[in-house]
Amino acid sequence: MKIYYLAYDIDINTERMEIYFPTAKIYKLCAINNCRLKFCCYYEKAYPSIEKCEGKSVPVVIWELDEENMELLDIMHDMDRCYEKVKIKISGESEIQIFTYVMKNNVLGLPTEAYLGKMLDGYEEHDFDPTAIEEALDESLKYYSRM
Asked: Which of 5, 7, 18, 54 stands 20 to 30 A from 32 (CA)?
């Protein structure tokens, strides 16, 4: 059985996905509307998450994966402590169930340059507008400048 994984983080990179999931195929490139990207703390680092936000959008890659890949994805997203798995409804995709991971912690943080570079590589690969990343970084920088 196939599963559909909505990626908005470094998993938008085809090269990265081919390393961990050689049978992965891009199902669709799109954006999720009324949603924004943000960077949230997890221990001493920060990773992306998404949340509802009227008028914003986040570019995403929907991957078609083999069901056996679910366990490794859960481990990679540290399901017990860091992220929770949620189902996502995409307009026009009524026949399939799409899932993604959302951070449990909402405290803003700053990603490492290396992590950010990998995300930007994926945005460039798919010709995505980097506004979502720029706005998320600006929000985190403003948060830390007030401290």
From this structure: 18
Closest CA to 39 of 138, 146, 147, 145: 138
Residue with tokens 């798995």: 85
Is the pLDDT at 147 greater than 70, yes or no? no
Sheet containing 25-42: which strands, arranged edge to edge?
Answer: 25-42, 45-66, 2-7, 98-103, 83-88
- The string of pLDDT tens digits covering residues 32-56 is 999 999 999 887 889 999 999 999 9
Number of domains the chain is built from = 1
Domain holding 35, by residue range, is 2-145
Residue 29 tokens read as: 């490139």
**How many Cβ atoms are within 10 Å of 13's Cβ, its own excluded?**
21
- Tally of CB atoms within 10 A around 110: 17
> Which CATH number belongs to the domain containing residue 68 in this structure?
3.10.490.10
Nearest 5°: the CA angle 122, 111, 87 is 65
